[in-house]
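Q: Dihydroorotate dehydrogenase (quinone), please. Structure only.
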Amino acid sequence: MIKIVSKIPFISSIFRSLYQVNDKRLEREVFGLKFKNPVGLAAGFDKNAVLYNELANFGFGFIEIGTVTPRGQEGNPKKRLFRLKEDQGIINRMGFNNEGLEAAINQLKKNKGRLIIGGNIGKNTDTAPENYTTDYLECFKALHPYVDYFVLNVSCPNVGSHAKLNDKEYLEELIKAVQQANDTFENQKPILLKIAPDLNTTQLDEIITLVSETNLDGVIASNTSTIRDGLKASEEQLTSIGQGGLSGQPVKNRSTEVIKYLSKKSGRGFPIIGVGGIHSAKDALEKIAAGASLVQIYTGFIYEGPALIKAINKEILTKSL
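A: Structure for Dihydroorotate dehydrogenase (quinone):
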């Protein structure tokens, strides 16, 4: 609908006048990139990079496309996306459904340059563990000319053979391989790691060490959760839904705790993009106060609509953050 409506003359300019907040005080320079405001759209919404030009009209400072895998894949069987309306949450087990690298590049060639684009990359579900790095490198090299920063998605709970992606030694190997590929380009792009909210303090300490040892450009905290504690949804409803990653309000506090821990323990040693349960301007400011340099929305965008982006940017200006 957004795609169709945006084709009507003057509609895009109406959207811009309704939702965009243009103010120099909102600008942020993070990992060498200049963002016109700190509010982004998280990966998973515009998986195949078909909507980012239209979504730019809603006031985002940046949009992350993907997760992109080398080959297109169907993802998990449907039904695989469920709203928990009482909890203001979503459970998904999409399984990296996307049209693949070539399709994403064809769409990114249409970039009108309105805002910063991130490329979230992953492996194909049927890729053997010994070839994981090859998948990431294929995506990285092919997308390099078309995106402004990269995210290594190693924390999605909906992909097969996931354990290796959480192993510190393998992560170190993967990051170094991608960094070496980055060095072959004239213009190097920032590389970030997206982590799960379910990590314990020992695992978070490992992430801090990993970022320090590899000179990684930043971390996105956090992905979806597999924990179902404290939900209003009934056990019966949750059983009928089954497995998947939980996002939205139920993960808000945990993702903020992760941001706060990483920021404090590392002495604000690296930039953090805060994501998880941002449904209001207050939620976004909590993430920034915890140590996030930028924030991303997804489930909040589904429930609250584009007015949420404007509300966050307006509140940031009010607080002069």
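A: Brief note, in case it's useful. Residues 168-183 form the longest helix (16 residues).
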